[in-house]
């Protein structure tokens, strides 16, 4: 016997309200339409669903069992409605975000956590990559947002870029590194130190090559490679190794006081960190809300980062 799911939902609503008029109001339906639906359900089953003469309405044994199934359907329907409403307002859904590894770990992951404290029904899936990988992921609809450094103000055709922070890479070392005691640093001082290899394909790697070219070196002493941000920091804190890192990453670690900036200017092109998205395509409202949160967070942070940068005596 096939029963109408809508009839079962209306039976449950009427019994929960204690009256046909109350159940109809809770469902946003008219009383006559609900009365007809319940009459059709009783006719279909061939048994009464309500105890005659009882007010508020009371279900028969069979009516109570059928109403229990109606409540399940009604609850699922309401959850589905909440999901649609949340998706349309950006308070529910999945946001897929990718970005350059060290920056994501040091800065963005914390902002994602702050965002989800405000929007607990939004799920975030984070991935890593450099600009070519992330551009391809956006193009193929594998991610919604990419956090990347760009060397110019204009994004490639088909994309839009929102700057969140001026990009600057620096040479980093442990606090207490011998080079910090030198009254004046030169790029040549870097030649004798061991190094942490930058991530392949990243701007960090191109800036390290610029250091080599500026000093006329063909190679440096790479002692460690392939680590995550935390492993790189742990390694540097126990050695005299140097690493090229974003200034903002070192800033984010300032309270730990384990690594610091080696105050030496290094050659690098002008860059900006920002949010890259596809242009001219429908956007996820949840992704819009996360992007707006990241932008606001950097509005508060970038002045502190700039003040910290200005406090460094570069090229001393």
Radius of gyration: 31 Å
Spatial strand arrangement across the major sheet? 2-1-3-10-4
Multimeric state: single chain
Q: Give the number of helices.
A: 10
Computed structural class: alpha/beta
Topology:
Layout: H1 5-17, H2 20-27, H3 31-45, H4 61-89, E1 93-99, H5 101-118, E2 122-128, H6 131-139, E3 145-150, E4 159-167, E5 169-174, E6 194-196, H7 203-215, E7 221-224, H8 229-237, E8 243-246, H9 247-252, E9 259-261, E10 271-278, H10 285-311
Parallel strand pairs: 1-2, 1-3, 6-7
Antiparallel strand pairs: 3-10, 4-10, 5-8, 5-9
Helix pairs in contact: 1-2, 1-3, 1-4, 2-3, 5-10
Report what the structure shows.
The structure is a single chain. The chain is built from ten helices and ten strands. It is of the alpha/beta class and 316 residues long. The protein folds into three domains: 5-89, Winged helix-like DNA-binding domain superfamily/Winged helix DNA-binding domain (Arc Repressor Mutant, subunit A), CATH 1.10.10; 93-167 and 271-303, 3-Layer(aba) Sandwich (D-Maltodextrin-Binding Protein, domain 2), CATH 3.40.190; 169-261, Periplasmic binding protein-like II (D-Maltodextrin-Binding Protein, domain 2), CATH 3.40.190.10. Strands 2-1-3-10-4 form a five-stranded mixed β-sheet, sandwiched between helices. A three-stranded antiparallel β-sheet has the order 8-5-9. Helix 1 packs across helix 4 (61-89) and helix 2 crosses helix 3 (31-45). The longest helix is centred in the first third of the chain and has 29 residues, at 61-89. It is elongated, with a radius of gyration of 31 Å. The model has no long low-confidence stretch (mean pLDDT 88). Keywords: DNA-binding, Transcription, Transcription regulation. Residues 1-60 form the HTH lysR-type domain. Belongs to the LysR transcriptional regulatory family. This is LysR family transcriptional regulator. One of its GO terms (molecular function) is DNA-binding transcription factor activity.
